[in-house]
Design goal:
The structure is a homodimer of 143-residue chains. Chain A contains 6 helices and no strands. Chain A has 143 residues and is mainly α. The first copy, chain A, has 2 domains: 79 residues, Orthogonal Bundle (Multidrug-efflux Transporter Regulator, Chain: A, Domain 2); 52 residues, no CATH class. In chain A, α5 packs across α6. Chain A is elongated and about 70 Å long. The two termini of chain A are 46 Å apart. The C terminus of chain A is likely disordered. Chains A and B meet through α3, α4, α5 and α6 of A and α3, α4, α5 and α6 of B. The structure holds a DNA duplex (30 and 30 nucleotides). Chains A, B: Keywords: DNA-binding, Transcription, Transcription regulation. Chains A, B: One of its GO terms (molecular function) is DNA binding. Chains A, B: This is MerR family transcriptional regulator. Chains A, B: It holds the Pfam family MerR.
DNA sequence: GCTTGCTCCTATAGTGACTGGAGGATGTAC
DNA sequence: GTACATCCTCCAGTCACTATAGGAGCAAGC
C-alpha cells in the first residue's frame, strides 16, 4: 500500500481521536476505508478532509444528524444550500439563547459569591440562594 | 396517612419529574422516604425543599457530585462555607469561559449565514467554512 | 532471527444525568 | 363495581464518545 494513511496519522492530522474515528465509521458518518493485508484501516486525503469537516462542525456544536445532512449536501454541490443555511441559522439561534441563559447564570452566581461573607454555612448566601428559589430571578436553563 | 405528600404532588410542586425523583433516590441524593401500606413513597416538606435545592443547583449547572457536597454543607450549618464558595466560584469561571466560547461560535456562525448567497452548495459559505478550517479563527470549544 | 515497543485490531462496558417503556399493583371518583 | 389516574419495579435507551481487555501486526535494533 504505497500512500494509504494509517489511522494514527489521520488522527494527528485532523485532531480527531482514534476511537472517535472508529466510532464515526461505526455510525456511518465516515465510510469504512480499505484495509491493508494486516487488516489495518488505510485512509486517503479525502477521508482526512471529511474528518476535519466533522470535527469543525462538532466544535460549532452541530449534532451528528445535522452533520450527516451537511455532509450529504457537501457531496452534492449542485443542490441548493438552503438546508445548510437553515441548519446554521437554527444553530445560531440556539447559541444566542444559550449565551443569554448563561449570562443570567453568571449574574446569579456572581450575586452568590459576592454575598458570601466567608463565615458559617448558617449565613451563607451561596447555600441560601440555592435553597430558596424565590430569592432569585433565574427561571430556566438547559445545559 | 394524613400528611404524606405523594410523588406526583412533589413533582408538580418542585418541577422535578417523577422518574428523576426516583433516580435521585437511587443515587442517594434524596433519602428514601417512608412508604404507605400500598408501597407508595410519601414525602414531607423537607424533602420538597431538598428537591427544590437540587433542581435549582442543576439549573445553575452544578454537577451531581457538587450538589452532594452543597447538600452536605446545608445539613451542617455550623461549618465554614468556604467549600460552597469554592464550588460556586469554580462554576462561575466555567460559565464565563463558556460564554466566551459561545460568543466565538456566534461570530463564526454569523459569518457563515451572512455569507450564504442562497445559491448552490458549490458556492455556499456555510459548507465552505465547515470544510476549510483555515478560513476561521475559531480554535476550541467543549460543549 | 529475535525481542522490544509501538501501533493497531475487535468487542464490550462505562460515562452523566436522566428518559422511556413494559407490565403490573393501588387508589379514587362516579 | 368499574373506569381511570397514579403509582410501583426493572430494564433498556439516549448522546457522543471514552476506556478497558486481550490480542495481532509491524519496524528497528541487536
Amino acid at each position: 500500500m504505497s500512500h494509504g494513511i494509517a489511522i494514527g496519522k489521520v488522527s494527528v492530522a485532523t485532531g480527531v481521536k482514534i476511537p472517535t474515528i472508529r466510532y464515526y465509521e461505526q455510525i456511518g458518518l465516515l465510510p469504512a476505508p480499505p484495509r491493508t493485508e494486516g487488516n489495518r484501516r488505510t485512509y486517503d486525503r479525502k477521508d482526512a478532509e471529511r474528518l476535519t469537516f466533522i470535527r469543525h462542525s462538532r466544535e460549532l456544536g452541530f449534532e451528528i444528524d445535522q452533520i450527516r445532512t451537511l455532509l450529504d449536501l457537501q457531496d452534492r454541490p449542485d443542490q441548493s444550500c438552503a438546508d445548510a443555511d437553515t441548519i446554521a441559522r437554527a444553530r445560531l439561534v440556539e447559541v444566542k439563547d444559550k449565551i443569554a441563559s448563561l449570562k443570567a447564570l453568571e449574574a446569579e452566581l456572581e450575586r452568590m459569591v459576592e454575598g458570601c461573607s466567608h463565615g458559617r454555612v448558617e449565613s451563607c448566601q451561596v447555600i441560601e440562594i440555592l435553597a430558596d428559589h424565590g430569592k432569585c430571578k433565574h427561571h430556566q436553563h438547559d445545559a
